[in-house]
Amino acid sequence: MTVHVPHFAEAAFHDRLVAAAARRADQPAFVEKHRGVWVSRRWRDAVAEIDRLAAGLRRLGLAVGGSVAFEGEISVHLLLAAAAVRAAGGRVVAVATTATLAERRAVLADPRIVAAVVQSREAVAAWQVAAGGRPLPIVFDHVSAGGRAPAETVTTFAALRRLAEPLGWAASLDRSVPHASGRLAWVEESTEWAEGLDVVLDRWLDDGIAVAVPERIAAAARDRVEIRPTEWTASVGRAERAAAAIRERLPQRGSVGAWLVAAALGRSAGPLSAATVGLLRRHAGLSRIAAVAIHDGTGRLPNADTQSLFRALRAPLVPDRREAPARDGAARREPAAAQLVAAGAAS
User: Is the dihedral of CA 74, 77, 79, 85 positive or negative?
Assistant: First the structure.
């Protein structure tokens, strides 16, 4: 398992958030699918929600320099909660959904971890076991019967919003021209991508564009086609899995369609091949994407087959050149993460 050891707390995140929202308060900030319907959330509403969540997390014990563990698919809820952690001066620690008991205990060995945000009852139980006798507040991002939490030490998102009075971060936002740029950044990831939450939030603020997520990762291919994003930032693993899913839906060998696709992907010239590539791009949800930015932290790209497929679909994979240095000015501390996990496994 890869555990993301986050950068030091960034006091400027709140200022960056409000500044970005001030320029586009009534424009879309997040787009998500809820019960089959695409729902847009304005920057103004996102800031207000982040304010409420930050107030709730502070009531749970989050202070400047504290950390919150996150586990699950990267949803709008998780992005808002992660933004709340950073706006409150805390740090986001992403933990893969496949984490073992020893790996979760290794994360909790850091006394700065004050809470965990999870998406399933299984994850709730796993973190409770890992915590042992340590009181660990858990925020449950899931629909439950009657809005009830699955345990006394667990707080639902709705309850987290009500724990404390927000500071009114969105009150200062003036009305802006409700004209979006038309750019839409796509994310279909989980906390398996260790830096994913931080990377997406930084790109969201830096570019000031709406971020779209699928209803669930299992439906990402369908939702990507529907929403037609203009940009896509992905981890190496997710790009490889997306390529495999695209290949699975190609026509079977021996058919005329398979011959046309093979010729088009082989960069055969001519209007028929060009039309075929255009059709494949639409069916893969790539019709408005010129390139896919791959964020790995080392500049590594996905395997050759994945690169070849995306290049043939006119959406080449390129390293994300906008990676910023660690906020403390030091190098990323990946070896420390390995040591943390090893220490937990040995305990």
Answer: negative
Q: What is the pLDDT of residues 277-323, one digit of tens each?
A: 899 999 999 999 999 999 987 778 999 999 999 999 999 999 987 65
Contact at 8 Å (CB) between 294 and 235? yes
Task: List helix spans (H) across 249-319.
Answer: 256-265, 271-283, 304-312
> How many whole angstroms from its chain centre is CA 157?
17
What are the structural domains, with CATH classification, of the chain? 13-174 (3.40.50.980), 230-319 (no CATH)
Separation in Å, CA 43 to CA 20, 32, 49, 103:
8, 14, 10, 36
Percent of the chain, pLDDT > 90?
69
Residues 107 and 69: beta-carbon distance below 8 Å? yes
* First-residue to last-residue Cα distance in the chain: 17
| 258 and 264 Cβ atoms separated by less than 8 Å | no
* Spatial distance between the Cα atoms of 236 and 163, rounded to a whole number of angstroms: 38
Residues 6+ apart with CB under 8 A from 35: none
Cα 241 to chain centroid distance, Å, stands at 16
C-alpha closest to that of 122 among 154, 94, 146: 154
Summarised one tens digit per residue, pLDDT across range 104-126 is 999 999 999 999 999 999 999 99
Backbone angles phi, psi at 226, to 5 degrees: -70, -45
Report how far residue 109's alpha carbon sits from residue 124's, in angstroms, rounded to the nearest whole number.
Answer: 18
Tokens 């400047």 locate to 64
CA atoms within 13 A on the CB side of 291: 9
Look at residue 192 and give its three-state secondary structure.
coil
- Hey, how many other C-beta atoms are within 10 angstroms of the C-beta on 336? 11
Residue 127: is it exposed, middle or buried by C-beta count within 10 angstroms (0-12/13-18/19+)?
buried
Let me know how many helices (H) and strands (E) the chain has, helices first. 13, 12
